[in-house]
Design brief:
Keywords: NADP, Oxidoreductase. InterPro entries: CBR1-like, NAD(P)-bd_dom_sf, SDR_fam, SH3_retrovirus. Belongs to the short-chain dehydrogenases/reductases (SDR) family. It holds the Pfam family adh_short. By secondary structure, the chain is of the alpha/beta class. The protein folds into 3 domains: 120 residues, no CATH class; 196 residues, Rossmann fold; 290 residues, NAD(P)-binding Rossmann-like Domain (Rossmann fold), CATH 3.40.50.720. The chain has 21 helices and 20 strands. It has an 8-stranded mixed β-sheet with strand order 13-12-11-14-17-18-19-20, sandwiched between helices. Strands 4-3-2-1-5 form a 5-stranded antiparallel β-sheet. A 3-stranded parallel β-sheet has the order 6-9-10, with helices on both faces. It is elongated and about 105 Å long. The two termini are 60 Å apart.
Length: 683
């Protein structure tokens, strides 16, 4: 920003004794004033008039921050009300009518043409008159504000040492700015202040650890231990939602000066819409396209009205903890509105988990350190945070795939969990619902051998996210039938050092159809998915492809020298040459000559498909140098594919693919990893 403008802004704020939160308004007025200055190159005319072709009247110039009285029309006040309201002058309307003024009572920027100015006074020179709470409607030309409840301003709910529900003006809480003060904008805002909105008997609650909002909630008779009054309920709504909203609005001008503004609204899973039986309210809050702050006000006012009438149960409102549930649902809805309104911000809401705090009388499960991790992570998100990082994991309804989804989501990445069977995919999603990561994972059906299914996924991602950042090709099958008891007879036998102890000819069934299916799923399926999603990956700033392979796909496991030669010739390797190898293998399998032609006698489909996957990885890495594309053997992991005879847990197995998915921009590409170590494609 121009230094002249900055100096003028600081002088204006200092003179008017307004806090830094009015930086944006002062900047707007400073620019107005500078545009009114004569300029020689414009032949003595003023820039604003030359650019806009409009005449600017000097008569309306006023002192920034001066005291102003706005006239209240007769039909909008009672006989006992004052005819004017004291405000602070902020600047001029452009496309709007009238002056811009700060209303300290309703804490809003308003517009009006009917104003009397006292330019020799600032809002700090005269004590504010006693304010009256009024139930009258807001004038049409002013910004609407929700009705408020009177409360004792004892400062018992505080945030940043300011009572967020206090009606005292901002300039009474923040010291005046000195001219030589630096004005660093805040980088992040965390709205954490909150209350329960009810009185709860601590002994009754601690009788069952984790009762509130947890699985043990049914063990407590909330009607006996919870006291809910209208004043407490209204106070909860005012603090949890309107308090956070007011603080956000006051700090937005400063956040806009940041290069990487973040807003984190600490919410709760209790604020999910499933906890609001009222279908009308649920419909309004879930209608993202038509969601507005006024519609949120409408829901909360209706809830409070029904509470006052004693009809919350009849009208379908939550019977207990209604204030908390509705205020957090409103907070979540407001988050979506803000994120849409300020696309350059990263604005998210988060449930930190069931944490041991005073609000639940320390009956939680998590420590405060664990609870704080999620809000802090969102406050420190990179510029392409959860509103910009998207991943797809194939074959993710169980085992390593499901754990990859969990670990990626724990990093704030939105993950599309895919599975061939829709029922199993949804069940997998349910398994993640106990953790915080569930909000980052969504399910979409995908059969990697069905082109229509693949295109449906690509279309979904394009419409929902507009791009893709990470693809993990994990879907895979053995390509044979194996007797589970025979495998379990020797732990770690399949693909491990104990393989010689098992007579595979006795316990393995290999047919042409099973073998062809193995190649179609493990190699061609991954290839089709990759090709369909490549255009979306190319829209990412940091595209990653991770192909989950196996050490069994190393070329040393293929006796056929011709095939080994083709797949190891990196310079001349093409997709067509890979097809040539696989087609030759299938032809020889069909003819019953795999042993004579030097193909693997057992697990041929698995070995050849993984070798093809490794070769395809090298081709892709060469073709797309701005991508990071690698293949990885996660180790011998306990999964269904080896009848849980593995050595590593799924958590350990998922670590390596996740690490490759999150590589820094200067990371390796076109390599084969065995767990965390780079390995050879051949030996």
């Amino acid at each position: 920003m121009n230094r002249t403008i900055c100096e003028q802004i600081k002088c204006m704020l200092s003179h008017s004794k307004l806090p830094k939160s009015f930086w944006g308004e002062a900047k707007r007025t400073a620019v107005d004033l500078i545009n009114l200055s004569p300029s020689a190159p414009l032949d003595g005319d003023i820039p604003d008039r030359v650019w806009s072709g409009k005449y600017v009247s000097y008569k309306r110039l006023r002192v920034f921050g001066c005291r102003a009285f706005v006239h209240i029309p007769k039909d909008e006040r009672s006989k006992l009300d004052d005819k004017t309201k004291p405000c602070t002058f902020l600047g001029y309307g452009h496309e709007e009518f009238g002056y811009r003024l700060w209303d300290p009572v309703n804490r809003k920027v308003i517009r009006s043409r009917d104003v009397v100015f006292l330019e020799e006074q600032t809002s700090d020179d005269t004590k504010q008159s006693e304010r009256k709470e009024s139930s009258q409607e807001v004038p049409d030309d002013l910004d609407p504000v929700p009705s408020r409840t009177t409360r004792d301003h004892g400062g018992d709910v505080q945030d940043e040492q300011n009572d967020i529900t206090d009606d005292e003006p901002v300039d009474d809480q923040v010291p005046p700015i000195q001219i030589d003060d630096p004005v660093p904008p805040p980088e992040a805002r965390v709205n954490n202040a909150g209350i329960s909105g009810a009185l709860v008997d601590a002994d009754g609650l601690t009788a069952s650890s984790g009762a509130v909002g947890g699985s043990g909630g049914a063990k407590i008779n909330w009607g006996e231990i919870m006291t809910q009054t209208y004043d407490l309920t209204a106070e909860g709504v005012q603090t949890n939602y309107y308090g956070a909203k007011r603080v956000t609005e006051a700090l937005l001008p400063l956040l806009q000066l940041s290069k990487s503004p973040r807003i984190v609204n600490v919410s709760s899973s209790m604020g999910k819409l499933k906890n609001i039986p009222n279908e009308w309210a649920k419909g309004i809050l879930s209608d993202v396209e038509n969601l507005t702050e006024e519609r949120i006000d409408q829901v909360l006012n209706e809830f409070l009205k029904d509470f006052k009438k004693g009809s919350i149960e009849a009208k379908g409102w939550p019977q207990y903890s209604g204030s908390y549930i509705l205020s957090k649902a409103a907070m979540n809805a407001y988050t979506r509105i803000l994120a849409k309104k300020y696309p350059s911000f990263l604005i998210n809401c988060v449930c930190p988990g069931y944490v041991k705090t005073d609000i639940n009388y320390n009956t939680g499960i998590l420590t405060v350190e664990e609870g704080a991790e999620s809000p802090v992570r969102l406050a420190l998100l990179p510029d392409d945070g959860p509103s910009g990082l998207y991943a797809v994991v194939t074959g993710a309804n169980k085992g390593i795939g499901l754990e990859i989804c969990r670990q990626l989501a724990s990093q704030g990445i939105t993950v599309v969990l895919t599975a061939r069977d829709e029922k199993r995919g949804i069940e997998a999603l349910e398994k993640l619902k106990n953790g915080v990561v569930s909000d980052y994972v969504i399910f979409h059906q995908l059969n990697v051998t069905d082109s229509a299914s693949i295109f449906a996924l690509a279309g979904f991602i394009e419409l929902r996210f507009g791009k893709l950042d990470i693809l993990v090709n994990n879907a895979g099958i053995t390509g044979a039938l194996v007797d589970a008891d025979g495998v379990r007879a020797s732990s770690g036998a399949a693909g491990g050092s104990g393989g010689a102890k098992i007579n595979w000819g006795e316990i393995m069934t290999q047919t042409y159809d099973l073998t062809a299916e193995g190649l179609q799923t493990n190699y061609y399926g991954a290839k089709r998915v990759t090709e369909a999603l490549l255009p979306l990956l190319q829209l990412s700033k940091s595209p990653r492809i991770v192909n989950v392979s196996s050490s069994m796909g190393k070329l040393k496991n293929i006796p056929n020298e011709w095939a080994k030669g083709i797949l190891s010739d990196v310079e001349n390797l093409t997709e067509e040459r890979i097809d040539q190898v696989l087609n030759e293998f299938l032809k020889d399998f069909k003819e019953g000559s795999i042993e004579a032609k030097g193909w693997p006698q057992y697990f041929g489909a698995y070995i050849l498909s993984k070798a093809a996957m490794n070769a395809y990885t090298r081709i892709l890495a060469k073709k797309y140098p701005n991508f990071l594309i690698n293949c990885v053997c996660p180790g011998y992991v306990k999964t269904d594919i080896n009848h849980n005879t593995g050595i590593l847990t799924v958590e350990e197995g998922a670590e390596s693919p996740v690490r490759l998915a999150l590589l820094p921009d200067d990371g390796p590409s076109g390599l084969f990893f065995v767990r965390k170590e780079v390995s050879s494609f051949e030996e």
